[in-house]
Amino acid sequence: MLRFHSYNMPEVYHKDPAGCQLLSYDYNGFLVPPFPNVQEHLDKLPDMPVRDDDVFLLGYMKSGCHWMWEIAGMLVNGSADYNPEQKGVAMMELMDQEKLDQLPSPRVLNNHMFFHHLPREILTKKSKMILMTRNPRDVAVSAYHHLFQLKFMYQYDGDWNGFFELFLDGKLNYGSWFEYTQQWEKDIKDHPELPILIVKYEDLKKDPVSNVAKVAEFLGLPKNDQLFEDIADKCSFAKMKAVKPLLPEFFRTPGESLFRKGVVGDWKNWFTVSQEERFQVECDKFDKQSTLFSTTY
């Protein structure tokens, strides 16, 4: 079984009610995945050089960032050809800065971090950012399968009911969805001069072509209806899952990949009535405070 090492970062093992533990690393009070050298990567990020044509892709994990990374990459390259690489090659908390520097322009750089973790040059370059958001219920279910399947990294053997408690308490990588999203809302409001496009997973699923066109317009790219249709088709879930699998040995169950179902509303097959009632309480609190985001879908 593969296992990453902590490289002297504090390991945090949060246990669910059944005693099953989930591994994260503590980066100055922020929980991050147990990636190799993740502390070094994050320490260097604020000073990372930014190119004029860089695009930054943001969002809590399992919010559709793989999907948008492929879409945005096709758009900036003007072609509906799949990137032969995986999103991980451009993931800022995963990769060495030297490797990120070697990526050809235009780069679509992705991460699940907060604004204060990112390169300071974003402020002077006015870099364009795309922030993915998704129904937190579907995020929770998708996150469970992701962390459970990647046992070599997260060491989690719990079931959905146990993971629900961890998710509701924010005891997993990137912390609480509610706190994460509230922080990004604050960051966006604190920096009105920065170009940030919020894209809802559900909107992209419902009408992919018009949302691909919206992203293109945001990025300042020429209107090209045929290209937008081709990209929407190539980036459909079924085609992405068929052509973009990760190495099978990473997953607990043979045949699994980072692309599981790609549907809206799968949470209804997992949440109990009690779980949804408890989750809704947190959603109500969030919705009363938020003006940019919503948990109502």
TrEMBL record:
InterPro entries: P-loop_NTPase, Sulfotransferase_dom
Annotated Pfam families: Sulfotransfer_1 (PF00685)
Residue stretches making up the Sulfotransferase domain: 52-284
GO molecular function list: sulfotransferase activity
UniProt entry tagged with the keyword Transit peptide: no
Gene3D superfamilies, A to Z: P-loop containing nucleotide triphosphate hydrolases
Keyword terms: Transferase
Keyword Transferase: yes
Family classification: Belongs to the sulfotransferase 1 family.
UniProt-recorded name of the protein: Sulfotransferase 6B1 isoform X1
UniProt organism field: Octopus sinensis (East Asian common octopus)
